[in-house]
Design brief:
Order of helices and strands: HHHHHEHEHEHHEEHEEHEEE
Strand content: 15-25%
Oligomer: single chain
Number of helices: 11
Strand order of the largest sheet: 6-2-1-7-8-10-9
Radius of gyration: 21 Å
Number of domains: 2
Bound molecules: S-adenosylmethionine
CATH class of the largest domain: Alpha Beta
Number of strands: 10
Structural class: alpha/beta
CATH superfamily of the largest domain: Vaccinia Virus protein VP39
Shape: globular
Helix content: 40-55%
CATH topology of the largest domain: Rossmann fold
Length: 282
């Protein structure tokens, strides 16, 4: 081994000191509500080293200074893009979509418009799944109103993928065959794209759950906020659930991830079954 090679040339990773990791965690918590425990240290180090390298920075202190002093806020967006986990796929936790089809949508037959919020949509698979299920339900039941799906996330790179709407086979593996035929087009080379009809039902937008309030004029008939709150501590989670509830119509449904729970007494939500809640009537 050449003793004169620098750590950079050796490809070694820069380690955050204890103090640097604490400052970084605080920054991420203050802006995004994401709780970075010590267990996440290796993951954070791995993901952020690439950013340090690209920016020509030698320490995490330098990196923190860059993020804090960036007036455009883009460095902060890049930070959350790197540390948030966007893993998702079509028809994930499929029983929720069965409930949507068999119960929630049927209760909305007399509405002229059905509004669903996919909160924390990552790269879009969940929103397109909702669109498939709702569109198929509308075709089968003769529903004549309009279907509208708002899909939001904090990560711009995830949203870019969502808008592009192109996915590899492993992401669409659980899409039923008839849905695949109706709503996806094969692009060859293991790539699928979503039909224009389905895209037209969805609006993708950037939204930070830590914002004071959300700019929605009308309430939603279902909110899917799944596998998002696992990153939040109890306080952040409760505050978010309260905020989301304000935008959910009375008697309507709130879906969370299968490994998540809200506690049976929290907010104005009634427990329906594991990972499913309903807002009480006013
Ligand atoms: C694991 S994905 C969940 C995707 C999908 N809901 C599912 O269940 O498959 C979690 C998403 O939450 C988003 N997220 C994390 N913190 C957020 C925040 N403060 N505001 C908005 N979105 C956030 C991440 O960017 C990520 O895309």
């Amino acid at each position: 081994m050449n003793p004169h090679l620098t750590s950079d040339e050796l490809g070694l990773l820069v380690d955050p000191t204890e103090a640097e990791f604490r400052s970084l965690s605080q920054l991420v918590y203050d802006h995004f509500g994401i709780h970075l425990t010590d267990k996440k240290k290796a993951l954070v180090r791995g993901r952020l080293n690439k950013v340090l390298k690209t920016r020509g920075l030698k320490t995490f202190s330098q990196y923190l200074d860059t993020v804090r002093s960036d007036p455009t806020g883009l460095a902060l967006i890049e930070l959350v893009d790197r540390i948030s986990t966007n893993h998702t796929f079509f028809f994930r936790e499929a029983d929720h979509f069965h409930f949507l089809r068999d119960v929630a949508l049927n209760e909305l037959r007399s509405e002229t418009e059905i509004r669903i919020w996919c909160a924390g949509c990552a790269t879009g698979e969940e929103a397109y799944t909702l669109a498939m299920v709702a569109q198929d339900w509308a075709e089968r039941t003769g529903y004549r109103g309009s279907l509208r799906i708002l899909a939001t996330d904090i990560s711009l790179t995830a949203l870019e993928t969502a808008v592009a709407g192109r996915y590899n086979s492993d992401r669409v593996r659980l899409v039923p065959q008839d849905f695949k035929r109706k709503y996806l087009e094969g692009l060859g080379e293991d790539l699928w794209t979503v039909s224009p009809a389905l895209r037209s039902l969805i609006l993708f937008r950037r939204l930070n759950f830590m914002d004071q309030d959300f700019p929605f004029r009308q309430q939603f008939h279902s909110v899917f906020c799944r596998n998002v709150m696992i990153y939040f501590d109890r306080e952040t989670k409760e505050a978010l659930v309260q905020k989301i509830c304000r935008h959910l119509a009375p008697g309507k449904y709130f879906f969370i991830g299968h490994s998540e729970s809200l506690g049976r007494t929290s907010s104005d939500l009634e427990y329906v079954q594991p990972s499913l809640y309903r807002k009480g009537a006013p």
